[in-house]
């Protein structure tokens, strides 16, 4: 799996939409969509912010 697949799974598990996540992060919803649908990955800082915003651990995010 790539980052986008992990992101989509985690986001859906938390029950929030792409727009809701984007609003919480202060980024455009299109950015979340792009991360989920392509091989594009955020910088490490934003990836950690996404994980924190979803209120899950990195291990949960990566599916361990």
Topology, pairings included?
Layout: H1 3-13, H2 18-25, H3 29-37, H4 44-53, H5 58-61
Helix pairs in contact: 1-3, 2-3
In short:
With 64 residues, this protein is mainly alpha-helical.
Explain this structure to me?
This protein has 64 residues and is an all-alpha fold. It has five helices and no strands. It has helices at residues 3-13, 18-25, 29-37, 44-53, 58-61. The radius of gyration is 10 Å and the shape is globular. 14% of the residues are buried.
Radius of gyration: 10 Å
Beta-strand fraction estimate: under 5%
Number of helices: 5
Question: Could you estimate the helical fraction of the residues in percent?
Answer: 55-70%
Q: What's the SSE pattern?
A: HHHHH
Question: Which residue ranges are poorly predicted, with pLDDT under 50 across at least 5 consecutive positions?
Answer: none
> From the structure provided, what is the oligomeric state, counting identical versus distinct chains?
single chain
Mean residue pLDDT: 93
Tally of strands: 0
Overall spatial form: globular
Specify the biggest β-sheet.
none
State the end-to-end distance: 12 Å
> What structural category do the secondary elements indicate?
mainly alpha
What are its keywords?
single chain, 64 residues, mainly alpha, 66% helix, globular
